[in-house]
Design brief:
alpha/beta; 7 helices; about 40% helix; binds nicotinamide-adenine-dinucleotide
């Protein structure tokens, strides 16, 4: 693929599918990718969402394999292909281990792990066959540091995502298919507010760069990892945490 590494990242001519696309990060990523020239299909649980001008929206529950087949088959029929898959659907709980229920583990693993497996399993062979694909999953700093405001089910689910993307990176590399993971620290979205009860808590000296993240911070990193500017990067977990985690 021809590359122009000066100027803003371009996704011109590419089709991007985003899960959790009505959430804080997913919505910002959808808008950034649309701005970079991609055809963007954002998906989320609700029947209708306005995710931004020019961005297509589909209702999609990531935990359902039949729904995955319907969604991807429909997109391929309409747009011809999917070049980029961004996996942002996720839920969180902060229940300590001894108090955590089977239902909570099932719910978190279902959305955060099965919800990454379903669309990836469906699209990976299609991307391999077309000789190109970029897959980017929302992991978490929690997979590395044991959690900031999260319980063990969430931490375990995100560790699984990082591992799964490394498997995809190895299997996909000979076919031009990339897989990377974002490892964000605390980002001010609905999820952060839900778990902490605070919309914008003070970073309280815990973040070297002095503030928590916002959705734009994540969208710019996602744009880099899904654009030709990162064409020698696969299997990485990008720390995006204001310096809270460094490896
Ligand atoms: N906000 C943070 O501090 C933070 C930090 C690290 C990682 N993350 C991860 O980043 C991703 C995006 O988080 P966010 O902060 O934008 O949260 P968010 O709550 O704003 O967005 C998550 C989206 O996932 C959707 N979703 C949940 N279950 C779903 C299902 N079954 N099917 C389809 N969609 C479903 C929700 O409706 C929501 O729109 C998540 O995977 C999260 O775990 C968040």
């Amino acid at each position: 693929m021809a590359q122009h590494l000066s100027g803003p990242a371009s996704l011109q001519g590419q089709v991007a599918l985003i899960t959790g696309g009505a959430g804080g990060m997913g919505r910002a990523i959808a808008q950034a990718f649309h701005g970079a020239g991609a055809t963007v299909i954002a998906t989320d649980r609700a029947e209708h969402e306005d995710v931004g001008d020019g961005i297509h929206y589909r209702q999609y529950d990531v935990t359902s394999r039949p729904a995955t087949d319907r969604l991807v088959d429909g997109i391929v029929a309409e747009y011809g292909k999917v070049d980029i898959l961004v996996l942002c659907a996720g839920i969180i709980a902060r229940t300590p281990l001894a108090d955590s229920s089977d239902d909570e583990w099932d719910a978190i693993l279902s959305v955060n792990v099965r919800g990454v497996v379903n669309p990836t399993r469906k699209l990976f062979p299609l991307m391999c066959a077309q000789g190109f694909g970029k897959i980017l999953a929302a992991g978490s700093i929690a997979a590395k540091n044991g959690g900031v405001a999260s319980g063990p089910a969430y931490v375990a689910s995100k560790a699984a995502v990082h591992g799964m993307m490394r498997w995809i990176a190895k299997a996909g590399a000979p076919h031009g298919v990339y897989a990377n993971t974002l490892a964000p620290g605390p980002v001010e979205t609905a999820m952060w507010a839900n778990v902490t009860g605070q919309a914008a808590p003070s970073a309280n000296g815990t973040v070297p760069l002095g503030r928590y993240g916002n959705a734009q911070d994540i969208a710019q990193a996602a744009l880099f990892l899904c654009s030709p500017a990162s064409n020698w990067i696969t299997g990485t977990s990008l720390d995006i945490s204001g310096g809270m985690w460094m490896d």
